[in-house]
Amino acid sequence: MPQMGESIAEGTVSKWLKQVGEAVQRDEPILEISTDKVDAEIPSPSSGTLVEIAVAEGETVEVGTVVAFIDTDAGAAIAGAPSAPSAPEAAEQEREAEREPTRAAAPAASSAAEAPAPASSAADALSPASTAPASTGAAAPAAEPAPAAARQSTAPPAPPASAPAASGAATTAEERLRTRSTPVVRKIAAEHGVDIATVPGTGHAGRVTKQDILSFIESDGREVAPGAAARSAAAEPSRPAGPAAARAEAAPSSDLWNAFYREVRHPEYAVREADQVEPMDKIRRLTAEHMVLAKRVAPHVHSFIEIDFTAVDRVRAAHKARWVAQGERVSYTAFVAWAVSRVLGDFPMVNSTVSGNNVIYRGNVNLGMAVDLNPGLIVPVVHDADHLGLVGIARKIVDLAERARARKLTPDEIQGATFSITNPGVLGTLVGLPVIPKGTAAILGTGAIEKRVVVVTDAETGTDSMAIRKRSLFSLGYDHRIVDGADAARFLSSLKEMLESFPEDA
Amino acid sequence: MGRVSYGASLELQEELVARRRSGDVADTLLLLEHPHVITLGSSSDPAHVLADDAELRRRGIERFEVGRGGDVTYHGPGQLVAYPIFELKPDRRDLHAYLRDLEDVLIGLAGAYGIDAERRAGATGVWTRSGKLAAIGVRVSSGWITSHGLALNVANDLSYFDTIVPCGIAGARVTSLARELGRDIGLSDVMEELVRQVCRVFGADEVEYASRTSCRADDIS
Question: Partners of A442 in the beta sheet?
Answer without folding.
Answer: A478
